[in-house]
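Recall that a protein's primary structure is simply its ordered list of amino acids. Everything else, from secondary elements to tertiary packing, is in principle encoded there. The following example makes that idea concrete.
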Amino acid sequence: MRVDEDDITEVTAFRQRIGLPEIIDVHTHFMPEPVMRKVWAYFDAAGPLTQRTWPIAYRHEEQVRLKTLRAFGVRAFTALLYPHKPQMAAWLNEWSAEFAAHTPDCLHTATFYPEPSAPEYVHTALESGARVFKVHIQVGDFDPADPLLTEVWGQLSDAAVPAVIHCGSGPVAGRFTGPGPVATLLRGFPRLRLIIAHLGAPEYIEFLDLAEQYENVHLDTTMNFTDFFEEQDPFPRAALPRLTDLADRILFGSDFPNIPYTYAHALHALERLDLGDDWLRKVCHHNAARLFTLD
């Protein structure tokens, strides 16, 4: 399957309009193939955590997905993966370390789950060069402040390695989603570099409050402002000036390949906010380049 040329043309035109040679995407998914196919099957079935039709726009084999991102001008991206049960994270980390080793434009990604072995395999991941972690509170169904993770968060805080955390209650609330558990976590680890996925949807205001309170908290724009997302969890337009105030800590994320629209639409959704080309350049490249020292 070839990369869609019209898709490439639209993304390239966006980059040219705002004067941006490259994009950094902090929220993309690469996983072991059997796991990825199970994720796709879950979306196809409109499972309990989505509860809506969710066609996968980039249901291609791995090498085509990589070629697609590179054709879009994506300079660096992540391989976000996450466990839904114990004794799974270490295996995922082994896979992602190997993936990063032969995919130099992928930021070495790791994950964890609240279990006694977590501090050991997180230490191993950090020692092997992990540059970003993924935590999915909704799928994992655990409290981010679980005592089993205290040492893990301490390691990430000391190493200044960011964690992309899906902690908002969208698309469906979980037992531990929402700003409360994250606020508890940050009180214990105020220097922690958290990247709040999806701008914390739908608790946008509360997560913006946390970002303003803690200087190392960032937010990613994954799926936000797209037609698909606005139907269910619209961002409050009165809060748009706060995105300008936090312009240095907003990061572009796409959720590629698991999106039900084109990659170009995700970028156009940001552009039509009319927050300016400088804001777009920061969000789509400069902020992530600084956070991950890619300059």
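The chain is about 45% helix and 10% strand. The chain has one domain: 1-292.
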